[in-house]
Each structure stands twice: as structure tokens, then as C-alpha cells.
């Protein structure tokens, strides 16, 4: 079984990860035993999301290196929040180790600021809420900034906080959670609301389940 780890931290933005957790659960209903969600934290103390939802990490960040070494860690997903301008040193160190092991890391909104501040976006194509949003980090990767909802470059996915749907679809593709046809149809449906994309999603889901 592969693991998608979700970093839990104070004020984590609920809408930026909720699509992914739901899609993961849905994929497991169609094809059980492939993936599971793991809540990881900087310690095991409970946190509260931006919507004041209480969450308790199941594992410490230290556990991720062992999972990566065993080949079972599919990705680390880091949602945005209000406290990424400083701190999170252990998270930064863990991200560096995971990148060295070619484990995908996906950051959205405020989490991209943390990666920029740590110098992890200096040589990668990336995006965020805006180019000016990252400038305050003092990073030197501005020439690699891309005006796009989501960008993946060499194992690092970044996205704007207002583009949680494209971010989720990209994580689904990067991890292989579902076939690309399903991720594409789901993204198109949630961005447009067009019935034809619902039909395409149902067809892709059925084909995958029965394969």
C-alpha cells in the first residue's frame, strides 16, 4: 500500500486539501488496498485548521524517511496556512530528504512561501498565489516563476491557494492515485460544471474499476 502524507499544522487551509482526501477515499472504494492517507505533524500534538477543525497527527515527520526508504511514500502534501513566514525547520529538512529520494512533494498557497524561503524553488519552475507573494521570502528563483494554476517540476508541485482543484488533480496524476483520464475528467468537471465531463468521469471510473 502506498501512502500519501498530509502535513498537519495550525491554521492549515481546509479547502486546499479536502478535495484530495475525498478523492483518495473514493479511489480506495473503487480499488481497495492501494493508497492510504497519513496525517503527519511536527510532533503529535493536535492542531486546528483554519476552519477550527481539530486534527491529530498520526505520525511524526521523522517517520517519513523510513517510509520513503521502503518505497511506500507516494507523496508529501503541504497545505497552506497562516504561519509559514518562519519556523517549520523540521518540515524543511524533511522535504529536502524526500526530494533527494525523488519522493514527490506538493505545496499550495502559503506552503510555497516556505519552500521559497528554504531555497527549494530557486532552480525549479514553480507557481504560487502571485510572484510578488514569494518575493518577500528573499529567494532567487523569480525567473522560474510561472503564471499557472499548478506547476510540477522535478518532483515538486506548487499551486495557488485559489486553485485547489487543479492542485488536487495534479497530485492525483503525480501519485498515480487514479488513471490520468479520471483525473482529467474530474478536474474538468469541477472547474466547469459541464455535464459532459461528469459522463466522462463516470465512464473512466467504470473502466478503471472493471479493468
From TrEMBL:
GO biological-process terms attached to the record: regulation of DNA-templated transcription
Residue ranges of every copy of the DJ-1/PfpI domain listed in the record: 4-172
Any Pfam family matching the protein: DJ-1_PfpI
InterPro entries (alphabetical): Class_I_gatase-like, DJ-1/PfpI, INH-QAR
PANTHER family in the cross-refs: ARAC-FAMILY TRANSCRIPTIONAL REGULATOR (PTHR43130), HTH-TYPE TRANSCRIPTIONAL REGULATOR RV1931C (PTHR43130:SF3)
Name this protein carries in UniProt: Thiamine biosynthesis protein ThiJ
Species the sequence originates in: Actinomyces oris
Amino acid at each position: 500500500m502506498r501512502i500519501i502524507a498530509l502535513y498537519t499544522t495550525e491554521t492549515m487551509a481546509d479547502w486546499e486539501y479536502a478535495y484530495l482526501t475525498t478523492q483518495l477515499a473514493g479511489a480506495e472504494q473503487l480499488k481497495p488496498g492501494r493508497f492510504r492517507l497519513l496525517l503527519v505533524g511536527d510532533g503529535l500534538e493536535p492542531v486546528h485548521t483554519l476552519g477550527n477543525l481539530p486534527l491529530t497527527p498520526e505520525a511524526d515527520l521523522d517517520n517519513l524517511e523510513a517510509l520513503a526508504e521502503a518505497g511506500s511514500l507516494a507523496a508529501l502534501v503541504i497545505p497552506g496556512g497562516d504561519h509559514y513566514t518562519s519556523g517549520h525547520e523540521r518540515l524543511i529538512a524533511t522535504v529536502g530528504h524526500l526530494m533527494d529520494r525523488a519522493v514527490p512533494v506538493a505545496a499550495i498557497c502559503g506552503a510555497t512561501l516556505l519552500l521559497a524561503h528554504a531555497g527549494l524553488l530557486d532552480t525549479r519552475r514553480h507557481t504560487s498565489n502571485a510572484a510578488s507573494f514569494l518575493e518577500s521570502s528573499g529567494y532567487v528563483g523569480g525567473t522560474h516563476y510561472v503564471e499557472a494554476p499548478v506547476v510540477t517540476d522535478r518532483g515538486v508541485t506548487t499551486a495557488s491557494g485559489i486553485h485547489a482543484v487543479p492542485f488536487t488533480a495534479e497530485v492525483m496524476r503525480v501519485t498515480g492515485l487514479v488513471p490520468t483520464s479520471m483525473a482529467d475528467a474530474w478536474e474538468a468537471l469541477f472547474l466547469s460544471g459541464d455535464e459532459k465531463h461528469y459522463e466522462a468521469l463516470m465512464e473512466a471510473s467504470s473502466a478503471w474499476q472493471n479493468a
